[in-house]
Amino acid sequence: MKLQMAATATTVLAAGVLLAGCQSDSGSGSAAPKASPSTATPVADSTTAPSTSGGTAPSTSGATTPPGVAVGEPAPGASPSNAGSQPGQGVAKTQIRSINPITAGGAVAAGWKVNRVADTCDGSEPSAVAKASKIFECGASAAGYDACWQVGKDQAGCVSSPYSKSIDLMKLTGPATTQRSSQAVPWGVVLADGTTCQPAFGGGGATRADGYIARWFCSDKRELVAPLNNLGGGFNRSGSVWTVQADRGLKSPRTTVKVKAVSYAVR
Predict the structure, then answer these.
(1) Which of 147, 172, 197 is the last residue of a domain?
(2) Are residue 102 and residue 131 in the same domain, yes or no?
(3) Reduced 3-state DSSP string for the chain
(4) Do residue 192 and residue 255 come from a single domain?
(5) Could you tell me the pTM of the whole model?
(6) What is the per-residue pLDDT across 161-175, written as a single tens digit (0 to 9) for each?
């Protein structure tokens, strides 16, 4: 009897082992438990991991390059490698420019904006900024026009700034002068750093203690100065690049500045 019970127990145990093995391998049974998250293999983030195929891996030391800026290119706002250089050092030769708003037939040239004004001009005073005859001044010295041309039979076309393409038409009450200035001075002066200057005729102000007076007023509040009796404007034309004296007021020191370009009124 004891032997029969032992045999039966052995048979049941073996069947249980076999049944457990079948449930583990069969797809019809319960699913196998998922791996614990703590033991899962991490996946690289393709949006942040830099590719090293085909080139050298980027350096991770120091600051990163901003988006849109090539490696080795200075970021916006960064100082260039030549930040210590002085402006205007690249000027190789002072340019001489000509301004003429009138066609050979006496009409206003294309590209100029025409304004009709109620002023009049007699055309008798030669322009100091002209390198040709029949170019004249109109109006009061400080508030007038430095260069005017005859337009048609009885109109004067006057330009108030050498940096503008706008011309004012007014009544011409006399014939345009046939004279020209004995020593024309530049109408527009562009300094090496891009600052623009134009004449201060009649409004130069007081004379400095060193005998210089302002002849041109500039867009950055500087003045170009010359000796009081220097009719040529005080420019040093001895080299390929002109120079001139500048200051920031009667009591400020004079400095020598380079001239990028000058302009004259012509026909």
Answers:
(1) 172
(2) yes
(3) CHHHHHHHHHHHHHHHHHHHHHHHHCCCCCCCCCCCHHHCCCCCCCCCCCCCCCCCCCCCCCCCCCCCCCCCCCCCCCCCCCCCCCCCCCCCCCEEEEECCECCCCCECCCCEEEEEEEEECCCEECCCECCCCEEEECCCCCCEEEEEEECCCEEEEECCCCCCEEEEEEECCCCCCCCCCCCCCCEEEECCCCEEEECCCCCCCCCCCCEEEEEEECCCCEEEEECCCCCCCCECCCCCCEEEEECCCCCCCEEEEEEEEEEECC
(4) yes
(5) 0.66
(6) 999 999 999 999 998
